[in-house]
Fold this sequence. Notes:
heterodimer; A: alpha/beta; 5-stranded mixed β-sheet; 3-stranded parallel β-sheet; 31 helices; about 50% helix; B: alpha/beta; TIM Barrel; Alpha-Beta Plaits; 2 domains; 8-stranded mixed β-sheet; two-stranded antiparallel sheet; 12 strands; globular
Amino acid sequence: MTMTIAMRQPHSKMNYALQHPENEGGMNDRVKRLHQQSIDTPTTLTIERALIETAFYKENYDKMPNCILRAKNFYEICKKKTIYIGADELIVGERGPVPKAVPTFPELTCHSVEDLHTLDTRELQPYHISQEDIDTYAREVIPYWEGRTQRERIFSHVSKEWEEAYHAGVFTEFMEQRAGGHTAMDGKMYRRGLLDCKALIAKTLAELDFINDPEATDKQQELQAMDISCDAAILFAERHAELAEKMAAEESDPQRKEELLKIADVCRWVPAHAPRDMQEAIQMYWFVHLGTVTELNGWDCMNPGHIDQHLFPFYQKGLADGTMTREKAKELLSCFWIKFNNQPAPPKVGITALESGTYNDFTNINIGGIDREGKNAVNELSYIILEIQEELHELQPGLSIHVSKVTPDEFVMAGAKVIRQGHGYPSVFNPDTYTKELVRQGKTQEDANEGGCSGCIEVGAFGKEAYILTGYLNTPKILEITLNNGIDPMTGKRLGLETGDPRTFTSYEQLYEAYHKQMLYFVNMKLAVNNYIERMFSLYAPATFLSLFIDDCITRGRDYYSGGARYNTTYIQCTGLGTITDCLATLKKHVFEDKKFTMDELLKAVASNWGRDENCQLSTVNSQPEKMRQFIMNRTPFFGNDDDYADSIAVKVYDDLVKAIEGHPNTRGGKTQLNMLSTTCHNYFGSVCGASVNGRLAHFAISDGTSPAHGADTNGPTAVIKSLGKLDQTKSGGTLLNVRFVPSLLKRDEDLKKLVSLIRAYFSMGGHHIQFNIVDTQTLLDAQQQPDDYKDLLVRVAGYSDYFNDMTEQLQNEIIARTENDEF
Amino acid sequence: MALIFDIKRFAINDGPGIRTTLFMKGCPLRCVWCHNPEGFDEKPVKMYTKKKCIGCQTCVEVCPQKNLVLTTEGIKDLGHCTACGKCTNECPTLALEMAGKEWKMEDLMAEVEKERQVMEESGGGVTICGGEPLMHTDYLCEVLNELSKRGFHRTVDTTLFASPEKVKKVAERCELFLVDLKLMDSAKHRFYTQVGNEQILSNIRLLSEIGHPFWIRIPFIAGVNADEENLTASAEFLSTLPTKPQMVNLLVYHDVGIGKHARLGTTYNPDNIKMEAPSEEMQQKALDIMQAHGLNTKIGG
């Protein structure tokens, strides 16, 4: 996710309560304490899960079918893991023994002693672990898993070509250390408890036809495993009930005693039964969440989806029968929100750590939008959730507002006010486009309407789809390899096909054709391995608990990883659209059309990193390569300026990626699809690329998502959305657009109305997603140092706005000083 | 035909909604605080931004007049520039740029059309400013006619320093005027802008009499016009008009003109006239005075 997630202390003058007298007090004391605890608690690694699992595997591996093994392993963890109920808590349950303790998943990737030391001591995003635990891990866990992990199964299978391309950064592989994820829920858990699931499982088992259905035995085993998973989660909840009762017995404060008894009551009821009130509904989801992230460590965590829609009936019922107030609902939701922040993402290793090193596990809660019938779904809880997000602004969960044509302006304005705070959310999605994406992929309109976006921007039919991301594709790297006739100039290795020396090319079409061949070669290389990995998950890591909540796993008797879901999609995420478009536009215009430079001159300049030394400094004044670079950066039509010259290249690159990736059968009965996001991978992908012909210096980031390359867009945000609007976004599973704004441009409500218009205009052009990066003074200081990367930065001066780059240093300094004051 | 020296998309301070603003070259006034001095002259004018210059001397090589030299202070113009545009076409960094270009009507409209959806969504449109667009009333009317045919909302940002006939002609073709009201005292007005204010005030009255919508914009400058006397006089004038301005914007002074003058090789405020942003108290006072006269007023555009 490319959004800047800043953890900022609340700013006194923008205290929510001051702006919203009706919400006097903001967070109540309980929420304040829980929030502070969540912020202050360091992230640690817990080896408890690994120890339980390793002991269980040592005893049971090979003694039963894998799905039963996995279900019993889950049961064992639910039975033995430490249960935690913190002071003040109303919603209970942690993934680890305490908040912010993250378990490991040695069955997928087993961290080495060295990995654990690195995680403990690294400066950014450490995961602390004691020496004693490292010693135990080395003794009890590591030896057993050697040769048995998913990661080893994958790397022992892949070809040398795949491995070299992977290590060179042509693509990444998501599932080499995390399970396939993207799991967002629909509303059925609020209507169906686990006992109901057990009844459905029993019915399906009873109807199995062992004479005519050759898969009946597999189905029987999977259904039995699902049944065990139900028992496991019920037991887990029961253990919380017992602990709550024990704590209540010892509690002297009568109010807390009553709360603990209520918690016990709730945990006895859910997840076994469908919830009866709002607290039970939230706790229901939370147990399902914990079960899913304990069973496996799927990417992009787990996601309640349209939580405002799911909880609203409980809220209304509570208001009607007098058991609920707005304040009480807000408190419960705040407690729930803090639970997400208590679960940092599992730590990654190797290349995956380079491309995604963050505590954020990307739960992206959807609010607003449309309901199953396509009608406006905004309700009072949508507004309460915006208030909570504004008050807590924790790293997790992420929040997105969904803005359809039927969504009222009032709600979009409320969302824009939170955007203005500059914490990077909510991001904004367009159901009118993403439901079309889903329908185009074969979903029914109703299932599409119930869908939404999870992770960063990925569309899915919530509760009915296994939509699995497999890794990013580095399109600028593929062009780099093309321009070197198949050789990677960074490693000197031949990674791609010999598509010819570009110096001999006589037309742009010839060059594009060479790129196209290389792109197909790498896409196919990745697809082949994706299919293998899918089988490995189906065979060795079925998700028998998660399968309970995804239609139609139970009735099909098949696992989430084996085609049990109603819809099954496999994505490759393509990155660097802006960068590759600008590179192609440069070559087309200056080499083939205007003949301003020869291909040889350009490639030599690029090979010299535009005449820079190893510290990226210009080695001579009046450098010829720098003159070329400036000419290219200032006099080439680049993507993001509403210029058809560049935009038509972007459309062609995008359409060809769609054609290359879309429609191959995966191993789960579904198809492969294109997605267009980069998370933070554009930094990693840039680091493995040399300089590029659009003027980008070696190892600098490539463009993020479908945003223009940094500094390439110089005609303002409306030109950017126009360029993006030329892509047929319904052909992908999502696009991502980042727009930078300084706080002063959004100061007044009338400015926010213009922001809302900008969003609406982009969405009327078919935009899928937009998010606003409200820049801080540090960004402005960076812009002074690196003006080429910030040509898009528009700031308000007095009664007008101007580009930051076009100002005198003195004025820039004043803007910087003022931005400091303006920060919300 | 007038030259256009800038087209700004996503203009959010030039009238209602999100707009595209066209800047026409040429202005009869010479306001000392002007922040678009490249709009003074009707002819194209070369601008040089020193911090963008990498000293490559491409311009020195291509200039047919041998008019440019590289000095320790950057590129120096020896005074024989014919504005042929060779240097500005070749400068790799855009340190040299030419302000002022002829636009074919169809190209101009194509540029404006690009923002149609955004304008429709935001209730925006096109604003024509300058320079002083009424200096080229015939061309201005042509552009407005074309915009009108295409259904765009039209705003003209002007000093109204023009004949009443011209004002009437333009008024028939635009929906809104943004009118600068700098000073009520004509002698002072002449001192700071080099023209008196009689025609401006009478044209404001004219607009008001025909009931044409207009907003008043006051460049709000301590040392020049941010005093009680001028504000009260302005408020009295505006509030006693047959129809009041829909809005009064007080545009707080800023010396952003310094950078533009440096790029033109001219000097900002050569006589060192004292000009400052009014204090917070003064801003509040101004709002109070305007509002006491029933004028819908705000700080900023």
